[in-house]
Amino acid sequence: MTVFAVLICLRCGNQTRHRLVKPHGACVISFLFHSVFLFTFHITSTMKKRAVDSKQNVESDSSSDDDSSGEDEEYKGGEQIQVDFEGRIPVDSDFHGIKQLLLQLFLKAHVNLSDLTELLIKQNYIGSVVKQCDDDPESDDEDDMNVDDDVYGITSVVNLTEKKSMQCVSQLRDLLKDLSTKHGDDRTVSKVNQLLDDDSHSVGLLINERFINIPPQVAVPLLMNLRKELEKAKSRKMPFDFHYFVLICKLYKMDHTKKKSKKNKNKEAEPEILWSNAEEEVFLEVADCSFEFCVKDDSDSALGGKWNESDSEMTPWRKVLIFPASKLDDVINRVTNMLQQ
């Protein structure tokens, strides 16, 4: 399996994608942008107190050109930024960060994202948000005010069966039925209606969202922690004993048709697929059914279109996966193995 990372150059804002080679455990993944910034991720798969540790080093290896702008002339090079991330329990101050992550997933869908965000925060015994950690417990209050409190990701579950009386959950259920009818085959439509109309089969919406330049290695400890929390909740007779999960994935399709040679002009090229969260391709392997749809008209993401003149057209899509909850352990093991290859 080929894993891609999409990263953003801090200097010029351009985006590019790179294949990851053996992105496992504590290995180092490096990318060079315009011979200016070197991005290095040190990823660990250990979680302590919901900690998802990663370090991001940014440094420069070149000086400014004589023709550079005034802003470029101020750049001295050799700068280094180190960021540590950890998983935390969602709190009220995370509201806007979580809602923004949900917005990049649902776009213009008719779902009350404010209510959905509040639900995720309220059930703080399930799920984690990825935030920058403060490694200095002795820092004073003034320093604490300067700590980056942005939310970089969220992994959680919403009960689509037990919470169906809530407006946002009812909207999610209607959305899934409507989308499956428009884009799924008869078997998929039947499966979706069966699961959502039969309260004896508890269905959970698995939310696995993060900034696009956060590597897939963080998914393993987050999913393992979520699994542990679900088991603990079930042991306490809480409504988190799911039969099925629904996962909405973000992906992009690259159209290579304009690059076909004259010899192959009658042969239709298959679009290359780029998964925003690389580990979610593994979920497809265990899914009972799935369907996908284009969101080009709904998306205002900078990832749409072309990143460079030589790139093929990038079109945003969504893929909905429905898989048995009993397969979650298997998926986590497969993702772990994928990142170790």
Automatic annotation (TrEMBL):
Residues 52-77 are annotated as: Disordered. The keyword Membrane applies. One of its GO terms (cellular component) is nucleus. It comes from the Eukaryota. Residues 62-74 have a biased composition (Acidic residues). InterPro entries: BCP1_family (IPR025602). Keywords: Membrane, Transmembrane, Transmembrane helix. The keyword Transmembrane helix applies. The chain crosses the membrane at residues 23-41. Belongs to the BCP1 family. This is Protein BCCIP homolog. It comes from Frankliniella occidentalis. The gene is LOC113211157.
